[in-house]
Amino acid sequence: MTTAFRARPLVLFVGDVCAFVFALWASLFFRTFSAPSWELFTSHLSAFSFLFLLWIGVFIVAGLYESRSIIFARRALSVTLLVGQTINVTIAALFFFFIPLFGIAPKTILFIYLVTSFLFVLVWRVFIFPWLGIQKIENAIVVGEGREVNELLVALNNAPRAPTRVVATIKPSDPSVAALVTRAIDGQGVRFVIADLDDSRVSRVFPELYNFISRGVRFVDALTLYEEIYGRVPLSQIDEQWLARNVSRYMHTLYDPVKRGMDIVGGLVGSSVSLLFYPFIILAIKLDDGGPAFITQDRVGQDNEPVRIHKFRTMSGNDHGKYGPGGSTVLTVTRVGRFLRASRLDELPQFWDVVKGKLSLVGPRLELPSLVEQYEKQIPYYGVRNLIKPGLFGWAQLYYHGDPHHAADVEATKMKLSYDLYYLKHRSLVLDILITFKTIRRLLIKSNA
């Protein structure tokens, strides 16, 4: 079973690296308007090769290899590339300034390289890549029904760069599903069959259709594609079998100690650097209303164990999560508190909690005990998110912006849970690093991930 989109990031990656190399040669050419010697080019290439890896990392953080970013990009590709390459050239300038090991000082060509690399990558992605035919729009049919299938249809129909055009939707309740699929493949040139294989009515008829694979037809699991596009797990699919397959605690015996090591290092660095901001934040809070600068609150940690965390105070008091009958706090956010929340500076003291092992750098967001008790009664399998240690940064914090704060909201929490479960299913060191850098990027440029 394959998805339609995974060939794109690999091809884009190879093309970007080639564009970096060609742009380097072109920059050396434009510097003197003469072809550089092989020795001059290779000396610069050896120095820039390490930078290329860092630059690809910047592109990854910018979302230039993610399926949902490639297909559903909201911002113009040219803007994203220009920002990315500006950051990359800045990295290069700092690299050659602090690590003068290569015997070259390419200060003159860095500005030239910014222009040429931007143009080369832009031409590659906008003109050459489409010409390869990898993103040629091909006909597809969808076999399935339900909320997630409908959301998938909407996404594919509205996406400006989707690789497929849905020409028909077949309901599993139709008694002639196999015949309808065969007719669509033969009559409408269908190249993709997007099917909800978790539906027994669909999986039952598909064995007789697999012979179409030899004709180049690709079968795509609808719910896998849904996860890839939306970055969340459909809650309708969560049951004991799903949990047994995807959330086993013994699948990460090597990952967990390495992650803890990263938490200690990252927590020490974050807590040490954050001390520089403490005097200014404390002074601002005192000048605002004269109240205490810090608060402590009990939250629910791993395995539903209580943890006490520390924060800068952003509200008019500390209600310790004891909400009123309406399910919301009676406190108000202070003027300084609004800034601290928007910038996430109120959470700086929690780096010490990471070092102590109460939190992780990356994981589901901490929740108040009173809300957890309420959600566990109303949302099936809500407690699964507490099987792992909560974190300062998280997948849900990046991609879901309707998270309720200081109030109970069951529907919004269900959506947040779908992102938390995606993280539980796919968590890895690579994903943790990606989330960390994407969070830093979001805080610096105030944009969605």
Topology readout:
Blueprint: H1 7-32, H2 38-61, H3 67-72, H4 77-98, H5 107-131, E1 138-143, H6 147-158, E2 164-170, H7 177-188, E3 192-195, H8 200-205, E4 218-221, H9 222-230, H10 240-246, H11 255-274, H12 278-289, E5 294-300, E6 306-312, H13 335-343, H14 350-356, E7 360-362, H15 369-378, E8 391-393, H16 395-399, H17 410-426, H18 429-445
Parallel strand pairs: 1-2, 1-3, 3-4, 7-8
Antiparallel strand pairs: 5-6
Structure description:
The chain has 449 residues and is an alpha/beta fold. The chain has three domains: 125 residues, no CATH class; 93 residues, Response regulator (Rossmann fold, 3-Layer(aba) Sandwich), CATH 3.40.50.2300; 197 residues, no CATH class. The chain contains 18 helices and eight strands. Helix 2 packs across helix 4 and helix 6 crosses helix 9. It starts with 6 loop residues before the first helix and ends with a helix. The model has no long low-confidence stretch (mean pLDDT 83).
Q: Helical stretch count? A: 18
How many β-strands, per DSSP? 8
Which strand order does the major sheet show? Answer: 2-1-3-4
Which word captures the global form?
flat
- Assembly annotation: single chain
Q: Helical content, roughly? A: 40-55%
- Biggest sheet statistics: 4 strands, parallel
Mean pLDDT over all positions = 83
- Computed CA radius of gyration, to the nearest angstrom: 26 Å
Number of domains: 3
Report the β-strand fraction as a percent range: 5-15%
**Unreliable sequence segments:** none
SSE topology string: HHHHHEHEHEHEHHHHEEHHEHEHHH
Helix/strand class: alpha/beta
**Cα-to-Cα separation, first versus last residue:** 28 Å
